[in-house]
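G.,

No rush on this.
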Amino acid sequence: MGTSGGERGRLHIPRSSSPFQGMSAFPSTPTLDDTYGALLIGTFLGLMLYGASLHQLVRYVRLFRSDVPSIRLLVTSVMVLETIHVVFTMHVCYYYLVRSYLKPQVLLEAIWTLQLFPALMALTACVSKAFLARRAFLTGPRSKWAVIVVVVLLVAELALAILLSAKGFILKNLMEFAKSTVSILTACEATSAAADALLAGTIIATLWNQDYHKRQPSMSWAKLMTTYMIKSGLPTAILNLIALVLAQTHRKAFIYAAINIVTMRVYANMLFAVLNSRKLMANGRMEVFANSESVSLNAIAQANRVAQAEMWNAPYRPQTSPATIKVNVTAEREQDGLDHTGSMRTYDKKSMSLEV
């Protein structure tokens, strides 16, 4: 039977080959909106935030070409991991929504990029949080114990994420994976949220003790709160808490994974926002000029600590120098009798100034 001219070139899909055909065989399967639809939206938002990270990376390279090696290594590691994660999210969306469009049974099978999601996201988050932990460490001696707890939480988060990825390779079915990894996923999300909350609380407490809000009288409350949030990393703590709640209420959906994708991009943007707002020299270095004869070792050590804090843009508690008592000795001139040559003996006492 021939076909009319208007029907030529059209794509005819058999009814039995519909991509949603056969989904009724999986009555407990969540809808595409809650799974790959949420993942697709998270990928879109992540791409926009990734573009903002690239823009800030260019600005960082232009402003701080001679930054310290540790910060440059940290920036490089974060951007490399961010780029890999962006590629992974795009590959997952393309594989399930385009390449497997006519294969609905594939939607329940985990691909290797999806299986590596937990480990890659945890590694990216830990590298970004290392910057926040260093800043919290530089805020003062009181923050050291909090940083130690954060390091323990980061190690636990990374170990749990690696365990999740290993489970993904063993249990290739996504429904089985969701049922058997509830406790591991909950612990992983909880440790991540706890680490971010502890870091944010430490930095916010330091800023408050410094009376930062009082030293900015012309700054509006909206801008002041934004500054507090960016400097402390509070947005990532809030996002991780939301992901933790969604992982409990929507266990078979990927909504929490979409939130995690956005959180990864926020980590990088906050890192660059803090680095690019530093008040350093144009070459990214800080020099402390001091006269070694007139400056005490305590002052030099404090200046170095301040330089390190400003290098990492960390708020620090200024230490007040101890009270100084100056004792001035006036010059005296005395004459006492005759020496063996017959001249008067003269004693000069040189003046001096002592600090005690």
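When you get to it, here's the other one too:
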Amino acid sequence: MSASSSPGTSPLASLLSANVEWAEHISTNDPDFFGHCAKGQSPKVLWIGCADSRVPESVLTGAKPGDIFVHRNIANQFHPDDDSALSVLAYAVNMLGVEHALLNPRSVNQSVISYLQSLEFIPTYPMQISIAPGIPRSKYTSPYLHTHHKNTSVVIAGHTHCGGAAACLQAAQAETKSAPDTPLGRWLAPLTKLVTTLDLASTPEEDRLDAVVVANVKQQVENVCESDVIKAVWAAYNTAGEKDTEKKKQVWVHGWVYDVGSGRIQDLGVSRGPTGSSG
């Protein structure tokens, strides 16, 4: 099916029509799918990506609703002082990955209840909260079942032909530099600063944007790893005893680049996890 507009049809009307077709198709092929979705989520991966319309994470990875927890912004940034990104990371790691079991208001521990109350969100239904990369899920896993998955994957996903990265490259190469005075300029300022530290003189001009994209992803991986959220869960893993399964949860951070021109994802090989663990 396609959401492209036919003559006389507005883009929004086309999207709504396509949604009806999609929902009917899913219901026909998997009548229980939406009912299961309403009971909770059990994503395997946190995807921190770019807001670019050409990089829809679920589509390009063949994922289903409920498979990927998502945070997207201009140029896939993870700023250390960005409460929006930090909240998503904390929720993914502390709420969707730590307990590995049934989350139920009647039995969940008080620290989890307090955390949910601080977000003004108390679930009124059982919710499975496990994340397990690399485990195929051909069918929905019931939220009423206890699970024992201990791995969480955080993916920083950049992409080629990134407009935000291109703007930063241009700004860094400008002869006259001025302090950013727009929301977008301020948002991209850390990336522009990063570009000024890169040695691009020997890089062919046509390859410079790709070099910036790769450097950007590597920097955001570093930023995520330096966050209090990740440092805390890694510290807990490294100090926990072998039988302390509640704390022996591995959180891995990865850096990927999606090639808009080919549709393929490249793993940059910069994955990081707790000391002494294997991903």
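Confidence is low (pLDDT under 50) at residues 98-149. The longest strand covers residues 250-259.

Enjoy the weekend,
O.
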